[in-house]
Write a structure and sequence with these properties.
Radius of gyration: 21 Å
Shape: globular
Number of domains: 2
Enzyme class: transferase
Low-confidence stretches: none
Strand order of the largest sheet: 2-10-9-8-7-3-4
EC number: 2.6.1.-
Protein name: Aminotransferase
CATH topology of the largest domain: Aspartate Aminotransferase, domain 2
Largest sheet: 7 strands, mixed
Distance between the termini: 49 Å
Cofactor: pyridoxal 5'-phosphate
Family: Belongs to the class-I pyridoxal-phosphate-dependent aminotransferase family.
Number of strands: 15
CATH architecture of the largest domain: 3-Layer(aba) Sandwich
Number of helices: 13
Strand content: 15-25%
Length: 388
């Protein structure tokens, strides 16, 4: 028996990230414009970093509350009242070591090995992989792509629900497609969950990145108090804190001890000084978030207008999130195309093959970057597309 054959089949079956593959292929090249991962180019703002640094220097380095320090949970209450007009309690909030951990814990809280969870694809690949690692089978329901837009067919979603289904994973606004559920979509999904006794794991990390106006519709707008919904979220996108790995779950207070236990036996909590930075982000960061959203909207228009003008790209401007999801004429292998594009243009894109069923013919570009870089990337990609 070799080292590899002695490992858990569940561990060895964990897939390599198709996004990271391209990043590793071209990381560090001179003149590279990296649009492949889902983050902006700005570092964490000073007021957040200072709050964390001050707490670190003040000695806030001991074991802390598993559910999150009280000031952070109270700041989350204020944030949801301000942004979602929803009155919640600190007992609804659980601080996690990233949005990724929030997703993993949500899966473990509601699913058992052999169960199924239904998700809409194309989708960020980490959810399906996290479900597999927990022994829960992900069942894909592809969104429909028509006229450059993505839409949900509720009948296809209902048809995917089976005896072993325990949850629906709904990411809106969506990474990578930008699809954003309407209030009617959310009501239809919630009705299915109620009918079948299912949980909803709602990933609304991009809720503020909604370009028609204000924020995107949320399950918080249509749910009742006893609905089975777990919201997973992160400080990464709104406040340029991707490297901090701090997230949260919104859950019914009755689950409090269960979630505390899951946190205890995975990370034993998020460092207290980092949570102080998160408090500052919530309480002082609205202006920074609004600047990020305005920049993303301008860049979305710059990139999409340039690519649509080639008449060889099928897409429309996304309503939400941070990504242009592009179908380029003649591209049948987006993985090979991503490697070719980075070689020939110096623009890093994520291949649609990384995003599961329905994504293979597409390329994802994150547009939350310096507007000059986005304009340059658009020109390079135009030349590449027109030369094919």
């Amino acid at each position: 028996m070799t080292i590899m054959t002695s490992l858990s089949p569940r561990a060895t079956a964990a897939p390599e990230s198709g996004i990271v593959e391209v990043v590793n292929y071209a990381r560090g090249r001179e003149g590279l414009i990296p649009l492949w991962v889902g983050e902006g180019d700005l570092p964490t703002p000073d007021f957040v970093s200072r709050a964390a640094a001050d707490a670190l220097m003040a000695g806030e380095t001991f074991y802390t509350w598993q559910r999150g320090i009280p000031p952070l949970r109270e700041a989350l209450v204020r944030y949801y009242q301000r942004r979602f007009q929803k009155a919640l309690s600190p007992e609804n909030f659980y601080v996690t070591g990233s949005g990724m951990q929030a997703i993993k814990l949500a899966i473990e809280a509601v699913g058992s090995p052999g169960d199924e969870v239904v998700l809409l694809t194309p989708a960020w690949p980490n959810f399906a992989a996290a479900a597999d690692l927990s022994g829960v089978r992900p069942v894909a329901v592809p969104l429909q792509f028509e006229g450059g837009k993505w839409r949900l067919d509720p009948e296809r979603l209902q048809a995917a629900i089976g005896e072993r289904t325990r949850a629906l994973f709904i990411n809106t606004p969506s990474n990578p497609t930008g699809w954003t559920a309407t209030r009617e979509d959310l009501k239809a999904i919630l009705a299915l969950a109620r009918e079948h006794g299912l949980w909803i794991i709602a990933d609304e990390i991009y809720a503020l990145y909604y370009y028609p106006d204000g924020r995107a519709p949320s399950f918080l707008d249509v749910m009742e108090e006893d609905d089975r919904i777990l919201f997973v979220n992160s400080f990464s996108k709104n406040w340029s804190m991707t490297g901090w790995r701090v997230g949260w779950i919104v859950a019914p207070p009755a689950m409090g001890q269960v979630l505390e236990n899951l946190i205890q036996y995975s990370t034993s909590g998020v460092a207290q000084f980092m949570q102080r930075g998160a408090v500052a982000a919530l309480d002082e960061g609205d202006g920074f978030v609004e600047e990020n959203i305005a920049k993303a909207k301008r860049n979305r228009d710059t990139l999409c207008d340039a690519l649509i003008a080639t008449n060889r790209v099928e897409t429309l401007k996304p309503d939400g999130a941070l990504y242009a999801f592009l179908k380029i004429d003649g591209v049948t292998d987006s993985r090979a195309a991503a490697l070719d594009i980075v070689d020939r243009t110096g623009v890093g894109l994520a291949p649609g093959t990384a995003f599961g069923e329905g994504g293979a013919l597409f390329m994802r570009a994150c547009f939350l970057r310096d507007p000059l870089q986005i304009a340059e990337a658009a020109e390079r990609l135009q030349r590449y597309i027109l030369s094919r």
